[in-house]
Amino acid sequence: MPSAYLKRQKEMKRLEKQREKAERRAQRKLASRRQKELPAESPSHAGSEASTTSGAALPESAPQDQLPLPT
Question: Coil, strand, or helix at residue 58?
Fold first, then answer.
């Protein structure tokens, strides 16, 4: 027979599991939103550079990766 202590422990474990599940759900939701946004931005951004500069975009993009971080 479960005592009040064991019932309380079981309830706490159930609540913790609910919180973890909600957190995972929120993370998946954010990840899917980011994934939807990034592919939509990348082709339009890359396509505009390729059509306007005709190959000169590659040397320009390399120094951008090496810019110092703002403090």
Answer: helix
